[in-house]
Structures are given as C-alpha cells and as structure tokens.
Design a protein that fits this description.
The structure holds 2 protein chains of 2 kinds.
Chain A: H1 2-18, E1 34-40, H2 49-62, E2 66-72, H3 75-86, E3 95-99, H4 102-109, H5 117-120, E4 136-137, E5 140-141, E6 144-156, H6 157-162, H7 172-184, E7 188-191, H8 197-212, H9 214-221, H10 230-244, H11 257-265, E8 269-275, H12 279-284, E9 289-292, E10 306-317, H13 324-345, H14 363-373, E11 377-379, H15 382-385, H16 388-402, H17 408-419
Parallel strand pairs in A: 1-2, 1-3, 7-8, 10-11
Antiparallel strand pairs in A: 3-10, 4-5, 6-8, 6-9, 6-10
Chain B: H1 2-36, E1 39-40, E2 48-49, H2 53-60, H3 66-96, H4 102-114, H5 117-127, H6 134-141, H7 158-183, H8 187-195, H9 200-211, H10 213-229, H11 232-237, H12 249-259, H13 263-291
Helix pairs in contact in B: 1-13, 3-7, 3-10, 4-7, 7-10, 10-13, 12-13
The chains are: A alpha/beta, B mainly alpha.
C-alpha cells in the first residue's frame, strides 16, 4: 500500500519541478499591451455613457497596444471614492474624472494630479486655451475638458401656448405676466427640487448674475470680493418673491431632481431650469420645447446673455501613475472624442473646436450651443468654483433661502460671517 | 507553578487572534480618529495641527450645527426606549405565552430587520410622497385632506416621519431578544405562580420581568447606541434635511468628511459619537445595577 503512495508522491513532486519549465522558451513574444485604468461617473443610466464607450472603443482601435480598463460610479459615491483613493496612490487610477474648479484644485495643490501642459501642446489648435481656465492652477493645466455646461431655462412651449404665450419671456416683467397667466390656467410655472440645494442654486445663481453682473459674481466666488453685496441680497429677495407668488411646485421640498425633470417632461410644469446636460433628453421627449436663459432683471447690471456655467467635466491624470505621460495623451484623445460624441448626442456642449459634421446635432442642443457662443461672460457653478467647505457652506445658505428661513440680508450677512 | 504559567500562556495564545482582530478593527481606528481630530486636514494635502480647535468649533459653531444634530440623536434615542422597547416587550410577552401561530408572528415581526435599510428607506420615501404616497392617498380617501403633509419636506413633520420607519425596522429585533429571555423563564416558576392564583399580568410583573432584566438592559443599550449611531435610513430618507431638521451626528460626520473635505472635524465628530455611546452604555449599566 505504501509503495504506490510513495510512487504517486514522487511523481507529483517531479511534475511540480518540471511544470515551470514549460513557461520558458518558444511560445511567441510576451504581450506588450499597456493597460491604463480609468474611473468616471458615466454609469449605465448616465446619458454620457455612449459617448464614453465610443471614445474608448475608437481609442483602443487606433492604439492596439493600449487597453483602457474603466469603471463608472454613481455621482455622489464617486466623490467619496476618489477622495479615499487619493490617500493611497496605489489605488488611484491612471485617468480619473474630475469636476473643474476647486474640486480639481485640491488635487493640484496636493500634487496628486499630473501637469498636462506638455501633453496639451499637440492639441492647442483644437482646444481653445479659454477652456482650460477652470483647470489651470498656478499657471499650470491639470485636466482635459470634456464638455461645457450652462444653466438653461427649458420651456414647454405647448403649456406656454395654453397660457397665451408664444415665446419664452426675456425680461422679468414678461416672466411675471407669463407666470400669472400660467397660474390662471392651473399650470405650475417652475419645477424645482427644493430638497437638493444644488438645484436651488441653478435658480439663484442666474438671478444673482443678472443682478450684479458676471465679473462681480466671479470675484465673489473666487474670494476676491465680499459676499456683503446689496445686489446679492436683492437677488435672493427676487427668488423669494417668485416663491411667495406661488411660481414653484408646492411639493418641491419632497421631490428629487429626477422626479422634477420627469414632471417637466410629462407636462406638469411649464419651466425647468437646470444644467444643459439635460438638453438631449428633453429634445427627445414628446412635446414642443425651447431652451433659453433666465430673463433680464429690471435694474440689473447684466444683459440677457451672461451665463452660469463653463467647462465643468474633466479628465485628469494621476501624478503617481507609472504611465503618466501616456495617460495624459490618452486623456486628451478621449476628451476630444467624448466631447464630440456628447455634443452629437445632446448630452453636452462643445469645449473643443467643432470641425466635424454637425447635421446630427439635435435642434435644442444647437440652440443651447448658440447661447454659449453668444454669451458675454460666464460664471462657473458656485459649487465648482469654490472649494469643498465654502461651497457646502454656501449651498447650506442657498437651501435655507428656498425654505424662506433667511431673507436676502440674512443670506449675505451669514455668508460674509462664514466666508468673508 | 509551571502548570499555572503554561495554562495562562495557553489562554493568552488562544485569545491572541481575537485580541489582534479586536485591536485592529476597533481600537486602532478609534485611536486614528482621535489623532486626526487634532488636525485641520482636507484629506488630500498636508495636515495642520490645531489641537482641540475642532472640538471647540464643534460645540460653538452655528454653521456646523453639531448641537442640533446631537439633540436629534438624543431625541431619537429617548423615543426608541420609550416606544420601541415597550412595544417589543409587549409583543415578546404575548408571543412568549405560546399562542397559536407563534412562529409565524415571530417571522413576520422580524422580517423588517432582515430587509436592507436602503430598501426600507426607498419604500418609505414612496409612502411619504405628497402626491401619490399611500399615506396622503389614504388621508384624502377618508376625508382628512387637511392632514396631508409634505412629510419628509416639512420641518415640522420630517423628524417624526423619519422615526417611524426606524422604530418599525428594529422593533422585531428587540422583540426577538426579549422573546428569547421570556422563553427561558423556568416553567416551574410560572406553574407555581398559577397555583398561587397569580394572573397573567402578575406573572409578567413579578416573575418574567425580573428574570429578563439582563436582556432588557442589553436591549436598552442597543436601542440607545443604535439611535446615536443611526445613519442609513436618515441618509436615504432625508440626508439630514430639510434644513438640517433631521441631521444626526453620523450624517454630519459624512458631510464633513466627504462633502466638506474636513477630515479633522469629521474625526472629532466620530470621537464624540464613541464617547457618547460608551458613556450611555456605562450609565445604563449603572442604573440597572442600582436597581438590582
């Protein structure tokens, strides 16, 4: 009994010694494929997903020696994940999605993001330098813009027609008359998610900009000017006047943004003011829609075409990546393609020069792109422009504005005390 | 002597893996939190030592709102003890008598404990929807339209609205704990009491309740510490809103850590939560020991 066992054991040991030798010699050359890892927020339900998929597919076809391994995460959980990953460079991917402004600025300050100046040079003619403003810190650029987004006032023209209006109001006086007419027909003028502070800021920021002008607003967001501005207080009072007149959905405090958008598309509200990333979806919905900007305010310092927004979605490269230079080049290639396909699909506006056939661009998207092209000045979204702590303090006050817990004077006094 | 020493060594070796796990999973993170709470740090860049500044700001700053969050957590804890434990105890006493369908009822009451908090949260978001939510629909159906509310969006109702699913989810858990204790009461004691002419209420009061005191104490500790640590349901239902009405220390901590990039402040909140939970556990032990 023992002999067969001993024989089997010896055979097994011998096999173990011989097997590794099979890996040596012959069999063809070792694979030279480089893998670049990427994290983003283009989940299955994100309208940008097809643009990412197409961009990555094309890049891999053009670069057969490079493989992009990518993962997508939900928006809010991504913020947690990327900040946790930053503390361990081993876990940070080669390329990662980032918001522009202070979100990226924190990474740049910490030396976590790779400087993209060198990689930008071949693309300088296709990517205007103005689009790099929100990703440039200390004179160095740290990311590739994917798209431009602005706050857009979407209007359901069928509902407006019911109220006797054939155009989107361009002055506050017109807006007042229009909303009065809508309410008389039992149509809710504005849909808003009062529970989400960033949605309220999509209403408040255009009003502030129309009141004090884009330059003054940029100064406040950048910390170069104080929040103690009577124009800001007046803007808050204007929004609260709109709330007081019943222009907003009475159930707003219980609604999430997705529900509000769905209600707008279903024809329950006449206006929906939110980011231009919604344009493609609204264009495809049944109904007659228009895209415009918030009306001009009486006594305001800004004309119609000053906008809130800018290039806010970017791709950055990890400074600790072993393939940082390659990843930077890949980020520019992917950024250009994602921008193009996103524009054609209506999920974003072009940050890169448009030198391709735009006949497929959806009509509403083309309208919004025209608004951007004609804009006199831009102010980046407040929660992008400011770094995390001041941005969240600001959003706290914004949400209290919607709840009418503070008025304009209280808003500016509080922010002056907390932020300066 | 050698035998005694060998026994102790053996005991220590047997305990060592658990001790390492305990220290690694529990003690080390606590100490790390205490360490980080002494810094002003955005989680990415350099750390600046600030000593107790974070704790001072926690208790003095209106914009952080820690005291309000703490008040909400203490209120939730008090209501958990005042409503959840008596309810669970009542159910355990009834089921412990051996009624028909005892096992079925046990399973039904325990089911919410098994369901994911996120699922429960989403379920109750729909229940509370002001337009099509079953609560407002029922109120309208019975002619009580005046009682309809934006339950999760109204500052007057949000905290109560959040409490209901929290109580609902864990009453089965406490019931099961107390039921186990009730079932462990020796039948001879009950029989002796019956022979002496005691009613059900008297048996419960003079025999069952004293017998299950240790389990009752454990349930109270779990209810209070669970309320102080509560996060998931509140995060899904309101995320601390509207206007921080339902903010609790755990949601505030997440806000500080991951939205505001204030890791030092977030760590300070974590330390305070640990101190509170530990403090309440000791207090409850002391209260129950005194009564013994």
């Amino acid at each position: 009994m023992r002999n067969p066992l001993r024989r089997a054991l010896c055979l097994a040991l011998a096999l173990c010694m011989v097997l590794p030798l099979c890996a040596c010699g012959g069999g063809g050359a070792k694979s030279a494929k480089t893998t670049l890892t990427m994290w983003c927020i283009a989940t299955e339900s994100d309208p940008n997903r097809p643009a990412y998929e197409q961009a990555i597919r094309e890049y891999e076809e053009a670069h057969p020696d490079i493989k992009i391994e990518w993962e997508a995460f939900e928006n809010n959980s991504y913020k947690t994940k990327i900040k946790a990953a930053v503390r361990d460079p081993e876990t940070l991917p080669d390329i990662f999605f980032t918001w522009s402004g202070a979100f990226l600025g924190d990474f740049a300050d910490a030396g976590v993001a790779y400087c993209m100046d060198e990689a930008y040079r071949p693309y300088a003619e296709e990517l205007p330098e103005v689009m790099l403003q929100s990703s440039t810190f200390g004179g160095k650029n740290y990311a590739v813009p994917l798209t431009v987004n602005i706050v857009t006032l979407f209007a359901n023209m069928d509902l407006l027609a019911e109220a006797g209006w054939d155009h989107v109001p361009e002055t506050y006086e017109e807006l007042s008359a229009c909303c009065g007419a809508l309410l008389a027909k039992d149509i809710i003028p504005f849909g808003i998610s009062g529970a989400e502070a960033w949605c309220v800021s999509e209403y408040l920021e255009p009003i502030i900009e129309k009141t004090i002008g884009y330059e003054a607003m940029n100064d406040i967001f950048a910390g170069r000017a104080s929040w103690n501005d009577p124009g800001v207080a007046a803007a808050v009072d204007t929004l609260q006047e709109m709330i007081g007149k019943g222009w907003f959905d009475p159930h707003a405090m219980a609604l999430g943004n997705d529900e509000v958008k769905a209600d707008f598309i279903a024809g329950k509200t006449a206006f929906y003011q939110n980011g231009s990333w919604n344009t493609g979806e609204i264009n495809d919905a049944e109904g007659n829609y228009a895209a415009a900007l918030f009306p001009v305010l009486d006594g305001g310092k800004a004309g119609y075409s000053q906008v809130i927004g800018g290039p806010n979605a970017e791709l950055a490269v990890s400074a600790s990546s072993p393939n940082a230079a390659l990843a930077a080049d890949a980020a520019f290639e992917l950024g250009r393609a994602i921008c193009r396909y996103g524009y054609l699909a209506g999920t974003g506006l072009p940050a890169w020069t448009v030198d391709y056939d735009t006949s497929e661009v959806k009509p509403l998207v083309a309208d919004v792109a025209r608004l951007v092209a004609e804009s006199e000045g831009m102010v980046l979204f407040g929660d992008n422009a400011m770094s995390a702590d001041p941005a969240n303090t600001y959003l706290d006050y914004v949400s209290r504005v919607y709840g009418c817990q503070i008025d304009g004077a209280g808003f500016v006094a509080g922010l002056t005390k907390d932020l300066g | 002597m050698n035998k005694l020493y060998n026994n102790r060594l053996r005991t220590l070796l047997m305990l060592l893996p658990a001790l390492i796990l305990f220290c690694g999973v529990l003690i080390a993170p606590i100490l790390t939190s205490v360490y980080f709470s002494a810094f002003d740090w955005n989680g990415i860049g350099a750390r600046t030592f600030v000593g107790f500044s974070n704790y001072k700001e926690l208790f003095t700053s209106d914009s952080i709102g820690f005291l309000k969050a703490l008040g909400n957590a203490l209120l939730l804890a008090a209501l958990s003890v005042a409503i959840q434990i008596p309810l669970a105890l009542g159910m355990a006493l009834v089921l412990g008598k051996g009624i028909k369908g005892e096992r079925l009822f046990l399973a039904i009451f325990f089911m919410p404990v098994l369901i994911s908090s996120v699922v429960i949260g989403q379920l109750w978001v729909k229940v509370y929807n002001p337009e099509y939510g079953i609560l407002n629909v029922l109120l309208r159906a019975v002619g009580l339209e005046n009682w309809t509310r934006i339950w999760l969006g109204d500052v007057n109702t949000a905290l109560g609205a959040v409490l209901v699913p929290m109580l609902w989810q864990y009453v089965g858990y406490h019931m099961l704990l107390l039921y186990a204790g009730v079932k462990a009461v020796p039948t001879e004691l009950r029989e002796a009491a019956i022979v002496d002419g005691a009613s059900d209420a008297q048996i419960n009061r003079y025999i069952v309740l004293p017998y299950i005191r240790p389990i009752l104490r454990t349930s109270v500790i779990f209810a209070i510490t669970g309320s102080l640590k509560s996060f998931d349901l509140i995060y899904v239902l309101t995320n601390g809103g509207p206007f921080h009405t339902t903010e609790v220390p755990s949601t505030l901590m997440i806000n500080m850590l991951f939205l505001r990039n204030r890791y030092g402040m977030g760590s300070a909140i974590a330390v305070m939560m640990i101190v509170l939970c530990f403090g309440f556990a000791l207090l409850i032990h002391a209260v129950f020991r005194e009564e013994d």
